[in-house]
Amino acid sequence: MDGVSFFQKLEALLLPPEVRASKDALSKLSAGGFVEFGSSGRTFDRNQVIDGTPFR
């Protein structure tokens, strides 16, 4: 598996709604420096994502 495929596979793990709704799953799957880029251009750090800030 090449590097691009590897990271695409990891990214896909974050997409299911049940993962996005689980603080435990997001904590396990996201690195300390994780940053979410919203479609609006806003950015959210790992803690904001885990707390659900982008989804409110």
Q: Helices and strands: which structural class?
A: mainly alpha
Q: Report the uncertain regions.
A: none
Number of strands: 2
Walk across the major sheet and give the strand order.
1-2
Task: Assess the beta-strand content as a share of residues.
Answer: 5-15%
The helix/strand order is HHHEEH
| First-residue to last-residue Cα separation | 36 Å
Question: How is the biggest beta sheet arranged?
Answer: 2 strands, antiparallel
Residues in helices, as a percent range: 40-55%
What's the overall average pLDDT, rounded?
Answer: 89
- Tell me the Rg in angstroms: 12 Å
What is the number of helical segments per DSSP (H or I, 4+ residues)? 4
| General form | globular
Instruction: Please give the domain count.
Output: 1
Keywords:
11% strand, 4 helices, 56 residues, 48% helix, mainly alpha
Task: Summarize it.
The protein has 56 residues and is mostly helical.
Q: What would you note in describing this structure?
A:
The chain is mainly alpha-helical and 56 residues long. The protein has one domain (3-55). It contains 4 helices and 2 strands. Strands 1-2 form a two-stranded antiparallel ribbon. Strand 1 (35-37) and strand 2 (43-45) form a beta hairpin.
SSE layout:
Elements: H1 3-12, H2 17-20, H3 23-29, E1 35-37, E2 43-45, H4 46-51
Antiparallel strand pairs: 1-2
